[in-house]
């Protein structure tokens, strides 16, 4: 492969690096400003705050009832991860191992919640949940988040399942393995990396999912990202430092889970597996 080293190519690479550097600097500056302001006693018209304190975190914890919000967030995330794992892995196995009329249409249906902006189907979904009496409850938030989560698990797991030789399953059945034994002793150990990858990424997506949760959450079923939105835009006077402290807590929670997810899965792994399967 011959690499273009002409002036035009060099200028293009410099422009790409310049735009990337500018984006990273702006992003780091915004994050740094929020973090600094969350510790500032006062920050008006100066490069740095006049002093630092941690009292805004205690204030945010009490004012926005972050203890209850974090409990609700953990409950929603746990239920979404559990249900999307159970339903998504089963659906992925059926799609990976079975050919049936309309399979392409089913795959398209699974793709739609990931390709279409959540707000476009979130409003009709919220209407249905309100009519069913589930909106404003914990289970309403869980059901709304399952709509994009299950397809995500399905699309992540299909390449992992397809790479397993079907003859392994056939051999297990020949030796008398039932469906339960086949899954627990043969398939599950082989699928653990894919399941961990899918569920950890679903976990991060659920923590960050705003649109669907906002449309169906009630006063006692708000996740952290929705509570942050209300803290910023609700009526009343609130200290900016307290809101920024809440934002830092949200960023920290999301970042911790993202780091854990990246510890178990390489973002290019899924694409590479799909390409290998396509090539074979």
TrEMBL record:
Keywords: Cell inner membrane, Cell membrane, Membrane, Transmembrane, Transmembrane helix, Transport. It is a multi-pass membrane protein. The chain crosses the membrane at residues 12-40, 69-96, 108-132, 138-161, 182-208, 214-235, 247-265. The keyword Lipoprotein does not apply. Residues 70-261 form the ABC transmembrane type-1 domain. Pfam families: BPD_transp_1 (PF00528). GO terms for biological process: transmembrane transport. GO terms for cellular component: plasma membrane. It is found in: Cell inner membrane; Cell membrane. InterPro entries: MetI-like, MetI-like_sf. Belongs to the binding-protein-dependent transport system permease family. This is ABC transporter permease. It comes from Methylobacterium tarhaniae.
